[in-house]
Write a structure and sequence with these properties.
The chain is an alpha+beta fold. Helix content is 47%, strand content 14%. The protein is built from five helices and five strands, in the order βαβααββαβα. Helix 2 (54-70) runs antiparallel to helix 3 (72-95).
Length: 141
């Protein structure tokens, strides 16, 4: 299926240079299976993955303050809504999957260390446009 642009996600321009760093064994698996592995984001080592941006926290805060001014029933409903949104966010860390790429014109030593470590590895250089084109052959969105 073709690449689908989602309005809530800002995608870099097609000519943007991107890199994917692989441990050698993972690169071999990708080549042999002709697939890319998409990991559930809850498995990422980064504790801030899928965290709430400052603007989102401020929106929640404003919702609660405005509701408090309207009385207990409005505040209870606002709290219920905020908790519902938080539940959805937490669930999304289990269902949303990602395949991580790094934007930049040059290889990154930090990305080598993060994704490959001290063993053997491979870096693939591509562009956002080439990835969109390659994903157009996938069976899923």
């Amino acid at each position: 299926m073709p690449y689908i642009q989602r309005n809530e996600i800002v995608t870099p321009p097609d000519e943007t240079v991107i890199w994917r760093y692989f441990r050698l064994e993972y690169f071999k698996q990708a080549i042999e299976s002709n697939t890319l592995y998409f990991s559930p984001i809850y498995k990422f080592a980064d504790p801030w993955e899928a965290s709430i941006p400052k603007a989102g926290l401020e929106w929640r805060r404003k919702q609660l303050i405005d509701a408090e001014k309207k009385g207990k029933d409005a505040l209870d409903k606002a709290i219920e809504n905020v908790l519902k949104i938080e539940g959805i966010r937490q669930q999304s860390t289990r269902t949303v999957k990602a395949n991580c790429w790094h934007m930049g014109y040059h290889e990154s030593e930090a990305m080598w260390k993060l994704f490959v470590g001290t063993g053997d590895g491979v870096a693939i250089k591509s562009t956002v446009g080439h990835i969109k084109e390659a994903l157009s052959e996938a069976d899923e969105d």
